[in-house]
Amino acid sequence: MSLLPINALYDEFSSLVNHKNLVVESETGSGKSTHLPVWAAEHGRVLVVEPRRIACTALADYLSTQHEQTVGDDIGYAIKLDAQYTDKSKVVFVTPGIALKWFMEDRLVDFKIVIIDEFHERRWDSDLLLSLLKLHQQHRLILTSATMDSTSLAQYIDADVLKSKGRQYPVTHRYISTHSQDMPSNKDLEVRILNILMSLSAQNEHGDVLIFLPGKKEIQQCIQVVRSKFQDVLILPLYAGVSDDIRQQVLTPSGQQRFVFSTNVAETSLTIPNITVVIDSGLERRTHQRNGRTTLSLQAISKANVSQRSGRAGRTQAGTAIHMYGEFAPLEKTTPPELQREELVEPMLAAASCDFVLRNMPFLEVLPMASLSNAELKLQAMKALNEQGEITDYGRRLFPLPIDTLFSHMLSVIIGKAEKETIVDLVSALSVSNKLYSISKKQDALEEFTRWNPKGCDLITLISIVRGHSCEGVIVDKELQSEARKLSIQIRDELGLPDLEVSSRIKREEVLLQLVEKLPELVFVRREKRKEAFGNEKQEVLLGRNSCFPSSYEAALVFDQFSLPGRGSKQTLTIATALAPIDLSLVLNSGLAECRSGEVINQDGEFKIIHEYFYANRKLKTEFVAPDNTDNIAVILNQVDSGLLMPKLKEAREKEIAAWKLYCQLNNKEVSSVTFESWFKEQLEALGVSSIDEMELFDETDFVFHGIPEWELQDFLDSYPQKVVLPDLVLSVEYFPRSKRILLHYHKGQRKGDVKRWELPSWSGWKLQYKKASRTVDIK
Length: 780
What we know:
Elements: H1 10-16, E1 21-26, H2 32-41, E2 46-49, H3 53-66, E3 75-79, E4 82-84, E5 91-94, H4 96-106, E6 113-116, H5 124-136, E7 140-145, H6 150-157, E8 159-164, E9 171-175, H7 189-202, E10 208-212, H8 216-227, E11 234-238, H9 244-251, E12 258-262, E13 275-280, E14 283-290, E15 293-300, H10 303-311, E16 319-323, H11 338-341, H12 345-353, H13 369-381, H14 393-398, H15 405-413, H16 417-430, E17 437-439, H17 443-452, H18 458-466, E18 474-476, H19 478-495, H20 508-518, E19 523-526, E20 533-535, E21 540-543, E22 555-565, E23 572-582, H21 584-589, E24 594-603, E25 606-615, E26 618-625, H22 629-641, H23 649-666, H24 676-687, H25 710-719, E27 723-726, E28 729-736, E29 741-748, E30 767-772, E31 775-778
Parallel strand pairs: 1-7, 1-8, 2-5, 2-6, 3-5, 6-7, 9-16, 10-12, 10-13, 11-12, 13-16, 21-23, 29-30
Antiparallel strand pairs: 3-4, 14-15, 17-18, 19-20, 19-22, 20-21, 22-23, 24-25, 25-26, 27-28, 28-29, 30-31
Domain Helicase C-terminal: 192-362
GO molecular function: ATP binding; helicase activity; hydrolase activity; nucleic acid binding
Keywords: ATP-binding, Helicase, Hydrolase, Nucleotide-binding
């Protein structure tokens, strides 16, 4: 290998690695990702944990080529859906997810040394893996860090710190902004980038250019604009889902000038040859907690990211970093760790699968208590964890599946072979990193799609794409389709289901029926006034801008969603991205709707009670039914309340109940929460009354409220009246014992002036006030 700054550490590294954990701090371009694994392999088998799949495959390819070997011999890799290594491979590059799965299976017994590369990125799975290895204490740990505090990290794992210089070539920095403190912005992003590239072209800049953008959407928009102006330049995208062919074109030098449009996957571990200019938009898409949910939003990068991106320009020659923001923009120092800004459901289940309780594990930062509690509640509701936070047998079946926990749970509750196949293909489609398909906007294509999928059901569309069936109106991302198919094949194999090529028919109705019954949280109904919004008992989602959900359906199962920050500082918008329309009758028949007994009506001498069915605060159905034994109590209450039965009972008892509550307050007793309705219902149940006819056996004196002792009641009512009658004025009285205040409310009367103290009861020691409409005055 060529000499790089990291080579200066070889002797010290070799002398320490057998008896000390190490933190290797070096700037980008030092060669740590390519040299440290080879050095470590001189002392034992090495597992190298890389934060991204593309880095795993690229580094394994590069090192195998350097050693004139085939990938999978001495140096291999294992990523989701792809692996090339053997038990004899000395170095194996893996993603953190694979490393966690292997740790769960055998505690990584076949590896002596574990290198966690680019640890400063602070992914949740890397943080969790390090905590597990720290507790296990059976491996030599080597962490590489370009931009974080190496001292605190070394203290955390009891390690020595080795430092290396970084890039070999100087990098000139240019800032394009109107003010030195301008923050990164996505306004007119593609136009601004085009102008920079045109300027570079005018300056005869012939080197390759790396442009950092926040996501695939922005990459595609910029490529579309730039391609029309630069026909002689090789324009390449680089993000997590690009094909192997495109990745090879990015990593292989070309005689043609190249513009590489990349997300932050190019920030670390990868060396793209011949890059002389980096254009940094200063933006990334990052998750964070908002109102208890993980939301994805466009945000400014940290100063650590700036350093990483700039360093790409000085890897193989002198370069220039062009920053599309002010030199003194107030950027964060580092990006907060994922464990601090995301839900903890996945980390908690992963820790439990390795027989550890997440809240008891040591981390560099204390985990948020609210996030821990929310994750525990969700996993316990799934029955994946018990009350002590330990994994259940069901939880152990969920974790090994290569999909999110919530999708695993969806798959696990479904009964029936064909039904399971349906869900396997659905969650495989939902698990790819980007949107699997889009619908053509051409009218003919839309009509063809409607004929092909008349219900506009995303379940049908997604499963059909995974199974290789589609229609002219559906534009499929072939790379993502291939990834989804591989995932389906893997899960089918693990569950012993038929091969993808011989899939059973899609059991849509049967699956939806089971999901409504077993996962009612997926059931949403349309808001009556805001037709684009759907709600369940806990949250609201919005239809995406390009959703094909039919306007004729009022309910849906929502399989997938993502959250975005709204306009307000605390507002969160949640977009439903995969829906299956269902009939409201399915919601009603499942028993999810709450039945509320309403008004009692008399139809030609026959009583009927109104039953209203609500779900997510929307009334789904109203019906008039003959009262049953439960409703008969409501009928009697209604008749008493309206004065048609025992006309004086309610007023008299409400007066006694109000007096009793005040009596308790004045005598420092616990104040009762009793109401006339709750008390009278108890009386009817105690007497065994269940019909109007039986009420003829009783009169008002049979229903006695036992509150203030009978011999005190009248004196108390005289001292603390609930109504005061004055000339031309009737007042209702409200008492506030704690503040010794009485508020007299205008009830009725023609008096225009205010109330005088002398015409009221004595109420010695109380402050008196009179309120009419919105006006309140003190009575003196």
